Amino acid sequence: MKLDATTMKDWQIAEAAEKQMKPIRRLADELGLKEDELLPMGVHLGKVDYMKVLDRLKNAPDAKYIDVTAITPTPLGEGKTTTTIGLLEGLNKLGKRPIGAIRQPSSGPTFNIKGSAAGGGLAQCIPLTPLSIRLTGDIDSVANAHNLAMVALTSRMQHERNYDDARLAKSNLKRLDIDPCRVQMEWVMDFCAQSLRNITIGKGGKMDGYEMESGFIITASSEVMAILSVAKDLKDLRQRMSKIVVAYDKKGNEVTTADLGVDGAMTAWMVEAINPNLLQTIEGQPVFVHAGPFANIATGQSSIIADRVGIKLGDYHVTESGFGADIGFEKFWNLKCRMSGLTPNAVVIVATIRALKMHGGGPAVKPGIPLAEEYTRENLKLLEKGCENLIAHIKTVKKSGVHPIVCINSFRTDTKAETELVRKIADQNGASAAVSEHWLKGGEGAIELAEAVIAACNEKSRFRFLYEPDMPLRKRIELIAKEVYGARGVTYTDDALKKAKALEADPQTNRLGTCMAKTQLSLSHDPDIKGRPRNWELPIRDIMVYKGAGFIVPLAGAIKLMPGTGSNPAFRHIDVDVNTGKVHGLS
Length: 587
Fold this sequence. Notes:
By secondary structure, the chain is of the alpha/beta class. The chain is 36% helix and 18% strand.
């Protein structure tokens, strides 16, 4: 069957493409994996034993390393994953050996408004259904490891309340004297469930747990997910797991997973999950799918392990950072690259005419509602004004010392005058630009983009971090706010200010990375402010500490760690053919 993005839905394209999909063993052979380095998980899925690969190829040259980021998106998304997949297909058309790395889709967005993060049109990662639903169980492992820590904490609190020291000693326990008002962790689930943000647990009798306030966050924001994203190997993951601060005792001392004796069991859940998952594009290029932290409330990166393997197996390795360059790329730049030791040769900034017009003052863009005519007819004035947002992201990438390439992700309603205006503005601000039709044409449509990436990779980059690790926390937050977001300054609630001062007073804790939590829908903290906001201040309402992952997480504005499900969620359109077992409606 000929694949046609204009007449077929994404899931229909994926289903048709899967009939010609390479078996996982053939894909592994083409990738150069040895037989014992592939861990098959069925006919078309597998995991890769990263330790064996890295040990065998430790002296092999590194591939060119490319990060894909974006401008500030509309709620519909501007196609970073689609562009990542399309770029792999385009590089392959030019005779290169590309490998990709993307995050595993969360069931929250998949069954809510956004849909799956598998790409779209003729630039998709397949097989679609397992990619979108469960895959090889990594997210389940993260959730189980995280919730096991909460089980250990809450049961310990119950036993310490009910038993004296002698009774505790018989179970080889010492009293931790946990403060129920200073429990740092909550429960996780991989859905957008706003009704579980704030709950009371332990109601009933004295054997029904410890009654206290608690809540749920989405699995993608779990510290365990962050650890999976940044761990270099199993030993590193094990050490990080033991440093997770679960609560504080009544004297203010940390209570960690190691104090609860649960860190080893949590790691046991992650032994298989630490190996990257191997999938493929519609055109047969290898893609590692590993880890799934969101960029607005977490690191927004696929795993360091996947990137380390990818740069040893191919000649171009393309990785994706979540949302816009203000959050996804900023964390790639100052967190992931610092922790991995890898530096990019080029950065792709995905932009759409649609999003730029929105930032120029166009009508609100909302899922499930048809686009206003401003987005389907030529409007150069609106577009030019909206390019202020693009310019802000170009400047952010240039501050890292890496050459930016603006990918104009093509829509059928875009006019030549509009794409040429964006190309001109990108060039005037020190970026290359390429129009890409990968959604419509696959690799053939991404050749211009692939050529621009190859040219940028041949330039000499002067990569540099935005800040040094020993810079005081508040100085780092202010630097990110001013240099990346464009704020004039930072304000703190009393509680956040108290925490910031305490963290700065401890030199070791102060050196933890700064992982900002901020809305993805604006350069500011307010999702309703579009374009390039000016003369505003970034409000920090709270600060969390992820000692295992190695992050301090300032919370800006009203950002939530548990998203909500919308009124027209995607799950209403997903169903199963009971005769074949095929899932349809994923997008």
